[in-house]
Amino acid sequence: MRIAIVGAGLAGLSAARVLSDAGLEPVVFDKARGPGGRIVSKRTPYAGVDLGTQYFTARDGEFRAAVDDWREAGVLASWPVTPRVLPEGQPARAQARLVAVPRMSALARHMAEGLDVRCGVQVREITREASAWSIQDRHGDSLGTFDGVLLTAPAPQAQSLLAEPSPRLAARAVEAPMKPCWAAGLVLDEPLNLAFDAGFPSSGPLGWVARLGARPQRPQTPEIWTLHATDAWSEANIEWSEDAVGEYLTQAFAELTRRRPSVSDRFVHRWRFARSRRALAEPAGYLEHDQLLCAGDWVVDGRVEGAWRSGRAAARRLISLAAGRADPDAE
């Protein structure tokens, strides 16, 4: 049974692994240059700069077991940081924060090993043909036919693909809007010697700042800071140019730290769909219509762990459907 998975983030990769281990044939498509979704790093001459997901936590027992496996494989480590509320300086909520090493994208690449993951491919259309699903890319070329399809893309992108094959699922995706985020990486000529390594600004356009070198297995020099704008500021200025955003956020960082950082280089990225504004909290962990399923953080609870669990739940459902096709009398 061939399964097309649209989206190579944590949900898509976790689903593909479960399907592959069960003997099915998952094929993962993603429009980005590499797997990972928002758990990616920007390649730069200095280091891999983490402009997307900054860290994640593990609460569920099954996910904690996966975390242990990733630690053993050498692609995950604890980040013993205590972010500060800024500029006040109070410690933020204590929790065990996890990061991939030596860069965030390492986890996705580890998860993708041995899987059929096809990056740089943008899926444009999904249509039902007899008892199979046909998928076309943005050029209108066929990507093949499949027995089932799993969409793990952000809700607005999933909604677009679902509009024709399943208006009901498209309507559910509309119920899960997502927030944007402008991100910037600042490469400094000289270290700032600040009293904190990460923090949550309590006002202004910045929602998060972190020193890259404070993370495990990251280079200490040059000093690089990751800045995330707030949801509200990002949404209000979503169409700004990268240069304008970089200048504005750099100035905001200078005002926050009361320093004048000498910036030798800067990287800016716009995440149109960074975080779930209102996840669906779907009890099953996935949405389904005629062997067309949806999974992801927006389906469950908006967290990295939720995306992983959602992908696995959808994969198990597809395995059940495959068993039913093999044995029509099973249900």
Automatic annotation (TrEMBL):
<protein>
    <submittedName>
        <fullName>FAD-dependent oxidoreductase</fullName>
    </submittedName>
</protein>
<dbReference type="InterPro" id="IPR002937">
    <property type="entry name" value="Amino_oxidase"/>
</dbReference>
<dbReference type="GO" id="GO:0016491">
    <property type="term" value="F:oxidoreductase activity"/>
</dbReference>
<dbReference type="InterPro" id="IPR036188">
    <property type="entry name" value="FAD/NAD-bd_sf"/>
</dbReference>
<feature type="domain" description="Amine oxidase">
    <location>
        <begin position="100"/>
        <end position="319"/>
    </location>
</feature>
<dbReference type="Pfam" id="PF01593">
    <property type="entry name" value="Amino_oxidase"/>
</dbReference>
<dbReference type="Pfam" id="PF13450">
    <property type="entry name" value="NAD_binding_8"/>
</dbReference>
